[in-house]
Specification:
- The protein is α/β, with parallel strands linked by helices.
- The protein is built from 14 helices and ten strands.
- Strands 1, 2, 3, 4, 5, 6, 7, 8, 9 and 10 form a ten-stranded parallel β-sheet that branches.
- β7, α10 and β8 form a beta-alpha-beta unit.
- α2 crosses α9 and α3 packs across α10.
- It is globular, with a radius of gyration of 19 Å.
- The chain starts with a helix and ends with a helix.
- The mean pLDDT is 95.
- The structure holds 5'-deoxyadenosine, iron/sulfur cluster and FE2/S2 (inorganic) cluster (FES).
- Iron/sulfur cluster binds next to loops.
Length: 364
Protein backbone atom coordinates (compact mmCIF):
# COMPACT_ATOMS: atom_id res chain seq x y z
CA UNK A 1 0.00 0.00 0.00
CA UNK A 2 1.02 3.55 -0.65
CA UNK A 3 -0.05 6.39 1.60
CA UNK A 4 -0.58 9.05 -1.06
CA UNK A 5 -2.92 6.72 -2.92
CA UNK A 6 -4.87 5.87 0.22
CA UNK A 7 -5.21 9.50 1.24
CA UNK A 8 -7.13 10.41 -1.91
CA UNK A 9 -9.32 7.34 -1.82
CA UNK A 10 -11.83 8.07 0.96
CA UNK A 11 -14.15 6.20 1.81
CA UNK A 12 -11.54 3.90 3.23
CA UNK A 13 -11.57 0.16 3.70
CA UNK A 14 -10.73 -1.26 7.10
CA UNK A 15 -7.23 -2.39 5.98
CA UNK A 16 -6.47 1.06 4.63
CA UNK A 17 -7.41 2.71 7.91
CA UNK A 18 -5.32 0.20 9.82
CA UNK A 19 -2.43 1.09 7.52
CA UNK A 20 -2.89 4.82 8.14
CA UNK A 21 -2.93 4.20 11.89
CA UNK A 22 0.49 2.60 11.64
CA UNK A 23 2.04 5.37 9.56
CA UNK A 24 5.45 6.54 10.79
CA UNK A 25 7.87 9.37 9.96
CA UNK A 26 7.26 10.79 6.52
CA UNK A 27 3.99 8.97 6.04
CA UNK A 28 2.69 10.14 9.38
CA UNK A 29 3.64 13.71 8.47
CA UNK A 30 1.67 13.36 5.23
CA UNK A 31 -1.38 12.10 7.09
CA UNK A 32 -1.22 14.97 9.58
CA UNK A 33 -0.73 17.53 6.81
CA UNK A 34 -3.72 16.30 4.85
CA UNK A 35 -5.91 16.24 8.00
CA UNK A 36 -4.89 19.83 8.79
CA UNK A 37 -5.88 20.91 5.27
CA UNK A 38 -9.26 19.21 5.48
CA UNK A 39 -9.87 20.68 8.89
CA UNK A 40 -9.07 24.18 7.68
CA UNK A 41 -11.36 23.83 4.66
CA UNK A 42 -14.35 22.42 6.56
CA UNK A 43 -14.27 23.74 10.12
CA UNK A 44 -11.56 26.44 9.98
CA UNK A 45 -9.05 26.99 12.73
CA UNK A 46 -11.71 27.75 15.29
CA UNK A 47 -11.88 26.14 18.72
CA UNK A 48 -15.16 25.76 20.56
CA UNK A 49 -15.07 25.74 24.36
CA UNK A 50 -17.31 23.43 26.35
CA UNK A 51 -17.04 24.15 30.06
CA UNK A 52 -16.80 20.76 31.77
CA UNK A 53 -18.59 20.35 35.10
CA UNK A 54 -17.72 17.00 36.70
CA UNK A 55 -20.60 17.21 39.11
CA UNK A 56 -20.29 13.85 40.84
CA UNK A 57 -17.91 10.89 40.90
CA UNK A 58 -20.49 8.45 42.29
CA UNK A 59 -21.06 5.65 39.82
CA UNK A 60 -23.17 2.50 39.79
CA UNK A 61 -20.89 0.85 37.26
CA UNK A 62 -17.70 -1.07 37.57
CA UNK A 63 -15.84 -0.65 34.28
CA UNK A 64 -12.54 -2.48 34.66
CA UNK A 65 -10.43 0.45 33.43
CA UNK A 66 -11.94 3.35 35.33
CA UNK A 67 -10.55 4.96 38.48
CA UNK A 68 -13.96 5.96 39.84
CA UNK A 69 -15.58 2.53 39.34
CA UNK A 70 -17.99 1.52 42.08
CA UNK A 71 -15.67 -0.92 43.83
CA UNK A 72 -12.70 1.41 44.12
CA UNK A 73 -12.69 2.14 47.84
CA UNK A 74 -9.80 4.58 47.55
CA UNK A 75 -12.03 7.23 46.01
CA UNK A 76 -13.46 10.05 48.11
CA UNK A 77 -16.95 10.33 46.69
CA UNK A 78 -18.51 13.76 46.15
CA UNK A 79 -21.48 15.46 44.57
CA UNK A 80 -21.62 19.16 43.85
CA UNK A 81 -24.56 21.06 45.26
CA UNK A 82 -27.06 22.61 42.87
CA UNK A 83 -25.64 26.01 43.72
CA UNK A 84 -22.08 24.92 42.86
CA UNK A 85 -23.25 23.52 39.53
CA UNK A 86 -25.20 26.65 38.70
CA UNK A 87 -22.24 28.85 39.69
CA UNK A 88 -20.04 26.91 37.28
CA UNK A 89 -22.62 27.37 34.52
CA UNK A 90 -22.74 31.06 35.34
CA UNK A 91 -18.96 31.23 35.00
CA UNK A 92 -19.22 29.68 31.52
CA UNK A 93 -21.90 32.15 30.56
CA UNK A 94 -20.01 35.18 31.84
CA UNK A 95 -16.89 34.07 30.08
CA UNK A 96 -18.77 33.68 26.80
CA UNK A 97 -18.39 29.92 26.42
CA UNK A 98 -21.05 28.69 24.04
CA UNK A 99 -21.79 25.62 26.09
CA UNK A 100 -21.29 23.47 29.14
CA UNK A 101 -21.03 19.72 29.66
CA UNK A 102 -22.58 18.15 32.75
CA UNK A 103 -20.69 14.94 33.40
CA UNK A 104 -20.92 12.42 36.23
CA UNK A 105 -20.59 8.78 37.02
CA UNK A 106 -23.65 6.81 35.98
CA UNK A 107 -26.64 6.80 38.32
CA UNK A 108 -30.29 5.97 38.03
CA UNK A 109 -33.53 6.52 39.87
CA UNK A 110 -36.26 9.05 39.75
CA UNK A 111 -34.54 11.44 42.14
CA UNK A 112 -31.51 11.66 39.87
CA UNK A 113 -33.61 12.14 36.74
CA UNK A 114 -35.59 14.91 38.38
CA UNK A 115 -32.54 16.64 39.71
CA UNK A 116 -30.91 16.84 36.27
CA UNK A 117 -34.20 18.04 34.84
CA UNK A 118 -34.36 20.79 37.43
CA UNK A 119 -30.75 21.82 36.84
CA UNK A 120 -31.28 21.98 33.09
CA UNK A 121 -34.21 24.32 33.54
CA UNK A 122 -32.24 26.51 35.94
CA UNK A 123 -29.30 26.72 33.54
CA UNK A 124 -31.69 27.74 30.77
CA UNK A 125 -33.01 30.52 32.98
CA UNK A 126 -29.70 31.85 34.23
CA UNK A 127 -28.24 31.97 30.72
CA UNK A 128 -31.41 33.16 29.02
CA UNK A 129 -31.13 30.19 26.72
CA UNK A 130 -27.64 31.34 25.74
CA UNK A 131 -25.80 28.16 26.74
CA UNK A 132 -26.02 24.85 24.95
CA UNK A 133 -25.98 22.02 27.47
CA UNK A 134 -24.40 18.66 26.79
CA UNK A 135 -25.04 15.75 29.11
CA UNK A 136 -22.61 12.94 29.78
CA UNK A 137 -24.51 10.87 32.34
CA UNK A 138 -24.35 7.36 30.97
CA UNK A 139 -26.98 4.87 29.91
CA UNK A 140 -30.53 5.90 30.69
CA UNK A 141 -33.97 4.99 29.38
CA UNK A 142 -35.42 6.58 26.25
CA UNK A 143 -38.00 8.34 28.43
CA UNK A 144 -35.28 9.88 30.59
CA UNK A 145 -33.39 11.07 27.51
CA UNK A 146 -36.58 12.69 26.25
CA UNK A 147 -37.30 14.38 29.57
CA UNK A 148 -33.82 15.85 29.72
CA UNK A 149 -34.06 17.02 26.14
CA UNK A 150 -37.34 18.76 26.87
CA UNK A 151 -35.79 20.36 29.96
CA UNK A 152 -33.11 21.96 27.80
CA UNK A 153 -30.26 19.56 26.98
CA UNK A 154 -29.36 19.37 23.32
CA UNK A 155 -26.29 17.17 23.10
CA UNK A 156 -25.30 13.89 24.70
CA UNK A 157 -21.94 12.17 24.99
CA UNK A 158 -21.82 8.42 25.39
CA UNK A 159 -18.62 6.71 24.40
CA UNK A 160 -19.05 3.25 22.93
CA UNK A 161 -15.54 2.65 24.41
CA UNK A 162 -14.83 0.05 21.71
CA UNK A 163 -16.93 -1.10 18.77
CA UNK A 164 -15.72 -4.67 19.16
CA UNK A 165 -18.23 -6.58 21.34
CA UNK A 166 -15.58 -9.18 22.30
CA UNK A 167 -13.16 -6.52 23.47
CA UNK A 168 -16.01 -4.73 25.26
CA UNK A 169 -16.56 -7.91 27.27
CA UNK A 170 -12.93 -7.98 28.35
CA UNK A 171 -13.15 -4.42 29.63
CA UNK A 172 -16.35 -4.76 31.64
CA UNK A 173 -17.80 -7.10 34.26
CA UNK A 174 -20.06 -9.75 32.83
CA UNK A 175 -23.42 -8.59 34.15
CA UNK A 176 -26.52 -6.92 32.85
CA UNK A 177 -25.28 -3.42 33.66
CA UNK A 178 -22.41 -3.73 31.23
CA UNK A 179 -23.75 -5.00 27.93
CA UNK A 180 -22.42 -3.86 24.59
CA UNK A 181 -25.85 -4.23 22.99
CA UNK A 182 -27.39 -1.93 25.61
CA UNK A 183 -24.79 0.72 25.03
CA UNK A 184 -25.31 0.51 21.30
CA UNK A 185 -29.06 0.77 21.85
CA UNK A 186 -28.58 3.83 24.03
CA UNK A 187 -26.84 5.57 21.15
CA UNK A 188 -29.80 4.74 18.90
CA UNK A 189 -32.21 6.02 21.53
CA UNK A 190 -30.30 9.28 21.86
CA UNK A 191 -30.44 9.88 18.16
CA UNK A 192 -34.12 9.00 17.96
CA UNK A 193 -34.82 11.32 20.89
CA UNK A 194 -33.34 14.20 18.89
CA UNK A 195 -29.92 14.87 20.44
CA UNK A 196 -26.71 15.81 18.75
CA UNK A 197 -24.92 12.60 19.62
CA UNK A 198 -21.29 12.19 20.56
CA UNK A 199 -19.39 8.99 21.07
CA UNK A 200 -15.80 7.88 21.34
CA UNK A 201 -13.36 5.15 22.25
CA UNK A 202 -10.24 4.61 24.27
CA UNK A 203 -7.07 4.16 22.29
CA UNK A 204 -4.28 1.76 23.17
CA UNK A 205 -6.28 -0.60 25.37
CA UNK A 206 -4.87 -3.99 26.25
CA UNK A 207 -6.01 -6.61 23.68
CA UNK A 208 -6.96 -3.89 21.17
CA UNK A 209 -5.71 -4.28 17.58
CA UNK A 210 -5.25 -1.75 14.77
CA UNK A 211 -8.15 -3.42 13.06
CA UNK A 212 -10.34 -2.79 16.12
CA UNK A 213 -9.44 0.88 15.98
CA UNK A 214 -10.10 1.04 12.24
CA UNK A 215 -13.51 -0.51 12.89
CA UNK A 216 -14.14 2.05 15.63
CA UNK A 217 -13.76 4.83 13.08
CA UNK A 218 -16.00 3.02 10.62
CA UNK A 219 -18.56 2.58 13.39
CA UNK A 220 -18.61 6.35 13.95
CA UNK A 221 -19.06 6.92 10.25
CA UNK A 222 -21.79 4.32 9.89
CA UNK A 223 -23.61 5.64 12.92
CA UNK A 224 -23.32 9.10 11.40
CA UNK A 225 -22.16 10.60 14.65
CA UNK A 226 -22.10 14.40 15.21
CA UNK A 227 -19.31 14.65 17.76
CA UNK A 228 -16.42 12.53 18.93
CA UNK A 229 -14.21 12.55 21.98
CA UNK A 230 -11.49 9.94 22.09
CA UNK A 231 -8.21 9.73 23.88
CA UNK A 232 -5.49 7.36 25.00
CA UNK A 233 -6.23 4.71 27.59
CA UNK A 234 -4.26 5.40 30.76
CA UNK A 235 -3.80 2.60 33.25
CA UNK A 236 -5.01 3.22 36.78
CA UNK A 237 -3.44 1.24 39.66
CA UNK A 238 -6.71 0.76 41.55
CA UNK A 239 -8.48 -1.00 38.70
CA UNK A 240 -8.53 -4.64 37.53
CA UNK A 241 -7.25 -3.78 34.05
CA UNK A 242 -3.99 -2.59 35.60
CA UNK A 243 -2.94 -6.24 35.73
CA UNK A 244 -2.47 -6.12 31.95
CA UNK A 245 -0.26 -3.05 31.85
CA UNK A 246 2.67 -4.99 30.47
CA UNK A 247 0.76 -5.55 27.25
CA UNK A 248 0.36 -1.85 26.57
CA UNK A 249 2.10 0.28 24.01
CA UNK A 250 4.36 2.89 25.57
CA UNK A 251 2.55 6.04 26.64
CA UNK A 252 4.17 8.01 23.84
CA UNK A 253 3.04 5.42 21.27
CA UNK A 254 -0.51 5.51 22.63
CA UNK A 255 -0.39 9.27 22.36
CA UNK A 256 0.77 9.18 18.75
CA UNK A 257 -1.86 6.59 17.93
CA UNK A 258 -4.54 8.85 19.40
CA UNK A 259 -3.35 11.72 17.18
CA UNK A 260 -3.51 9.44 14.14
CA UNK A 261 -7.04 8.36 15.06
CA UNK A 262 -8.09 12.01 15.19
CA UNK A 263 -6.42 12.79 11.88
CA UNK A 264 -7.98 9.83 10.06
CA UNK A 265 -11.40 10.58 11.52
CA UNK A 266 -11.16 14.17 10.30
CA UNK A 267 -10.52 12.81 6.79
CA UNK A 268 -13.47 10.44 7.06
CA UNK A 269 -15.94 12.84 8.69
CA UNK A 270 -14.97 16.30 7.60
CA UNK A 271 -17.66 18.41 9.25
CA UNK A 272 -18.10 16.85 12.69
CA UNK A 273 -16.88 18.22 16.01
CA UNK A 274 -13.88 16.40 17.42
CA UNK A 275 -12.73 17.07 20.97
CA UNK A 276 -9.10 17.22 21.98
CA UNK A 277 -9.45 14.85 24.95
CA UNK A 278 -7.95 15.84 28.29
CA UNK A 279 -6.30 12.41 28.50
CA UNK A 280 -3.94 13.56 25.73
CA UNK A 281 -2.56 16.19 28.07
CA UNK A 282 -1.97 13.60 30.76
CA UNK A 283 0.78 12.20 28.49
CA UNK A 284 2.07 15.29 26.72
CA UNK A 285 1.84 18.80 28.20
CA UNK A 286 1.01 20.10 24.72
CA UNK A 287 -1.23 17.13 23.93
CA UNK A 288 -4.47 18.94 23.27
CA UNK A 289 -2.81 21.61 21.14
CA UNK A 290 -1.18 18.91 19.04
CA UNK A 291 -4.62 17.37 18.53
CA UNK A 292 -5.98 20.73 17.33
CA UNK A 293 -3.29 20.80 14.69
CA UNK A 294 -4.28 17.44 13.23
CA UNK A 295 -8.05 17.69 13.25
CA UNK A 296 -9.68 18.38 16.63
CA UNK A 297 -11.80 21.55 17.01
CA UNK A 298 -13.28 21.36 20.52
CA UNK A 299 -11.69 21.78 23.95
CA UNK A 300 -13.42 21.14 27.23
CA UNK A 301 -11.91 23.48 29.83
CA UNK A 302 -12.50 22.11 33.28
CA UNK A 303 -14.78 24.47 35.25
CA UNK A 304 -15.44 22.11 38.17
CA UNK A 305 -14.75 23.90 41.49
CA UNK A 306 -11.08 23.31 42.35
CA UNK A 307 -11.59 21.43 45.62
CA UNK A 308 -13.28 18.48 43.88
CA UNK A 309 -10.96 18.07 40.94
CA UNK A 310 -8.58 15.66 42.61
CA UNK A 311 -11.40 13.21 43.14
CA UNK A 312 -12.56 12.83 39.54
CA UNK A 313 -9.63 10.64 38.63
CA UNK A 314 -10.68 8.31 35.85
CA UNK A 315 -6.97 7.88 35.19
CA UNK A 316 -3.71 9.06 36.75
CA UNK A 317 -1.82 12.27 35.94
CA UNK A 318 -5.00 14.10 35.13
CA UNK A 319 -4.01 17.69 34.37
CA UNK A 320 -5.45 20.86 35.95
CA UNK A 321 -6.37 19.26 39.27
CA UNK A 322 -4.73 22.06 41.25
CA UNK A 323 -6.17 24.83 39.13
CA UNK A 324 -9.51 26.60 39.06
CA UNK A 325 -11.68 27.69 36.16
CA UNK A 326 -9.95 31.07 35.76
CA UNK A 327 -6.50 29.47 35.66
CA UNK A 328 -7.53 27.05 32.92
CA UNK A 329 -9.14 29.81 30.93
CA UNK A 330 -6.04 32.01 30.76
CA UNK A 331 -3.77 29.01 30.31
CA UNK A 332 -5.81 27.82 27.36
CA UNK A 333 -5.97 31.23 25.74
CA UNK A 334 -2.19 31.32 25.61
CA UNK A 335 -1.89 27.75 24.38
CA UNK A 336 -4.45 28.15 21.64
CA UNK A 337 -2.92 31.38 20.38
CA UNK A 338 0.41 29.54 20.28
CA UNK A 339 -0.91 27.03 17.72
CA UNK A 340 -2.57 29.88 15.77
CA UNK A 341 -6.14 28.92 16.46
CA UNK A 342 -8.95 31.19 17.46
CA UNK A 343 -11.38 30.60 20.33
CA UNK A 344 -14.97 30.94 19.14
CA UNK A 345 -16.42 32.90 22.04
CA UNK A 346 -20.18 33.52 22.08
CA UNK A 347 -20.85 30.71 19.62
CA UNK A 348 -22.73 27.51 20.27
CA UNK A 349 -20.60 25.62 17.82
CA UNK A 350 -23.13 22.98 16.84
CA UNK A 351 -21.50 20.57 14.47
CA UNK A 352 -21.97 21.43 10.82
CA UNK A 353 -22.69 17.78 10.40
CA UNK A 354 -25.70 17.96 12.69
CA UNK A 355 -27.04 21.00 10.85
CA UNK A 356 -26.85 19.08 7.58
CA UNK A 357 -28.46 16.05 9.19
CA UNK A 358 -31.34 18.22 10.40
CA UNK A 359 -31.87 19.69 6.94
CA UNK A 360 -31.98 16.20 5.50
CA UNK A 361 -34.76 15.31 7.94
CA UNK A 362 -36.80 18.38 7.10
CA UNK A 363 -35.65 20.19 10.25
CA UNK A 364 -34.83 23.92 10.49
N1 LIG B 1 -8.09 5.97 30.66
C1 LIG B 1 -8.60 6.78 29.70
N2 LIG B 1 -9.89 7.08 29.60
C2 LIG B 1 -10.72 6.59 30.54
N3 LIG B 1 -12.05 6.71 30.71
C3 LIG B 1 -12.40 6.01 31.80
N4 LIG B 1 -11.32 5.43 32.36
C4 LIG B 1 -10.26 5.77 31.59
C5 LIG B 1 -8.88 5.46 31.63
N5 LIG B 1 -8.36 4.69 32.58
C6 LIG B 1 -12.92 7.41 29.76
C7 LIG B 1 -14.02 6.50 29.22
C8 LIG B 1 -15.28 7.19 29.65
C9 LIG B 1 -14.83 8.61 29.82
C10 LIG B 1 -15.71 9.46 30.68
O1 LIG B 1 -13.54 8.49 30.37
O2 LIG B 1 -13.92 6.46 27.81
O3 LIG B 1 -16.32 7.09 28.71
FE1 LIG C 1 -18.65 4.77 35.82
FE2 LIG C 1 -18.09 5.89 33.43
FE3 LIG C 1 -16.13 5.08 35.07
FE4 LIG C 1 -17.64 3.25 33.82
S1 LIG C 1 -16.22 4.77 32.83
S2 LIG C 1 -17.03 3.22 36.01
S3 LIG C 1 -19.61 4.28 33.83
S4 LIG C 1 -17.58 6.73 35.46
FE1 LIG D 1 -6.06 23.89 33.07
FE2 LIG D 1 -3.84 24.72 31.62
S1 LIG D 1 -5.81 24.11 30.93
S2 LIG D 1 -4.16 24.72 33.80
Amino acid sequence: MNISEILIREPYMVEEIAYLLQAEDNEKAMLFEKAAQVKKAFVQNKVYFRGLIEFSNRCRKNCLYCGIRRDNVHVRRYSLTDEEILDAARFACENRYGSVVLQSGERGGDGYTKRIEHLLKKIGQLSNGGLRVTLSCGEQSYETYRRWLEAGASRYLLRIETSNPELYKKLHPNDRHHRFEMRRKSLDDLKRAGYQVGTGVMIGLPFQTYEDLANDLLFMKQFDIDMVGMGPYLEHPHTPLYAFRERLLSREDRFQLALKMIAVLRLMMKDINIAAATALQAIDPMGREKALKVGANVIMPNITPGKYRNDYTLYENKPCTDENADDCQSCLEARIAFVRHEIAYDEWGDSEHFKEREKGQGGE
